[in-house]
Design brief:
Layout: H1 3-13, E1 19-22, H2 27-36, H3 43-54, E2 63-68, H4 70-73, H5 83-89, E3 93-97, E4 102-104, E5 112-114, H6 120-130, E6 134-141, H7 150-170, E7 173-180, H8 188-208, E8 217-220, H9 235-249, E9 256-259, H10 266-279, E10 287-292, H11 294-304, H12 311-329
Parallel strand pairs: 1-2, 1-10, 2-3, 3-6, 6-7, 7-8, 8-9, 9-10
Antiparallel strand pairs: 4-5
Helix pairs in contact: 6-7, 7-8, 8-9, 9-10, 10-11, 10-12, 11-12
Length: about 350
């Protein structure tokens, strides 16, 4: 493990007001999203869509790294250039999702455990050799009647820590993602309490597994009420609750927190990130960045629809969303930025 290189990569991932583009959807998830907009669900269309994403002009001005799926990291442009080379040539860092998904947890009805530790050491070595320099593992925590349980939180926290240690051993920066889901009718306060508990457990296990905090990134959920909750707090209240929660449990050694969008609309995800950065009265110990998937991709997918003639317009929409989130990192995002679907390159 090269500690200095891990620290350098982790810092680059959250430097210069940039963030991550999560394009690590599994084949089944990608196919479902294609089906909703009438795109054929096959490997050629998935390859074409991912080429559209990574070849967006000037994307590297706003995006520091891209999280890929196993299928994607092995793909090439139509002309034969490996995607990993395209990403690096665009000034971005290739990353890879390495968990194998959340599965039903035995003896814990309604709860999930993320799998993928078996054989992970060898897979990480292969991905490093392919050019990846960071990885991602997602755990999901559901809020409901009597859940999450202590056992579910502990099992997922331990798996995240073991994954992170293996990543650093292989020379990859671990992006640690314990997601408290937005589904349900829970209050924002309930989400805050559980997010704090989950993050406390995660960092406890990270320290137990001797993970170097300076060489990792936390991918966190914002503190939000459930989608079905009658009370939906204002953007400023979400921002303040999220920052307060993070200050209580995230060690200052961590270089950055990259928020997931978790089903938020593009505009709300940007506005809430913006409020966190704009409302902080003193410098925070870590950067507040983004690691969005649908909240960056969806407008481009809706425009593209699998039609080659729509590629430029789709890329403009993608770049626009990336610019909005870069502005949000500076606390300079405004609703006026949504009045146009494209922004001219400065």
């Amino acid at each position: 493990m090269n500690e200095q290189e891990l620290m350098n990569v982790a810092r680059r991932l959250v430097a210069d007001d940039k963030g991550l583009l999560a394009m690590d959807e599994s084949t089944s998830t990608c196919n479902k999203r294609f089906a909703k907009v009438g795109i054929p669900q096959d490997v050629d269309m998935r390859r074409a869509y991912r080429e559209l994403l990574i070849t967006t002009p000037f994307l590297g001005e706003c995006i520091s790294g891209t999280i890929l799926y196993d299928e994607t990291i092995r793909q090439q442009k139509k002309v034969g250039t490996p995607f990993v080379k395209v990403i690096m040539d665009g000034g971005m860092i290739p990353g890879i999702k390495v968990d194998t998904g959340a599965k039903d947890m035995a003896a814990f009805p309604g709860e999930k455990i993320t799998e993928g530790l078996d054989g992970l050491r060898d897979r990480l070595k292969e991905y490093f050799e392919m050019g990846a320099r960071f990885a991602k593992w997602r755990a999901v925590i559901t809020i409901g009647f009597g859940i999450p349980s202590f056992g579910c939180i502990e099992a997922n926290a331990q798996a995240l820590a073991r994954y992170a240690a293996l990543c650093q051993e292989a020379g990859l920066v671990p992006v640690v993602e314990p997601e408290v889901l937005m589904t349900g009718d829970h209050s924002m306060e309930r989400c805050r309490e559980l997010t704090k508990d989950v993050l406390h457990a995660v960092f406890s296990h990270l320290c137990t597994q001797r993970v170097m905090l300076e060489g990792m990134i936390l991918k966190a959920n914002m503190v939000l009420p459930g989608r079905a909750c009658a009370k939906q707090e204002a953007v400023s209240e979400v921002a303040d609750a999220t920052v307060k929660c993070l200050l209580q449990v995230v060690p200052p050694a961590v270089p950055g927190v990259a928020f997931l969008s978790g089903g938020q609309t593009c505009e709300l995800a940007s506005a809430r990130l913006n409020a966190m950065n704009a409302r902080s009265r003193s410098p925070l110990p870590w950067a507040l960045a983004f690691s969005f998937a649908r909240a960056i991709q969806q407008p481009a997918l809706d425009i593209w629809k699998g039609n080659i003639h729509n590629v430029v317009a789709a890329q403009n929409a993608l770049y626009h969303r990336a610019q909005c989130n870069k502005a949000a990192r500076r606390g300079e995002y405004t609703a006026a930025m949504e009045e146009t679907s494209t922004l001219a390159h400065a």
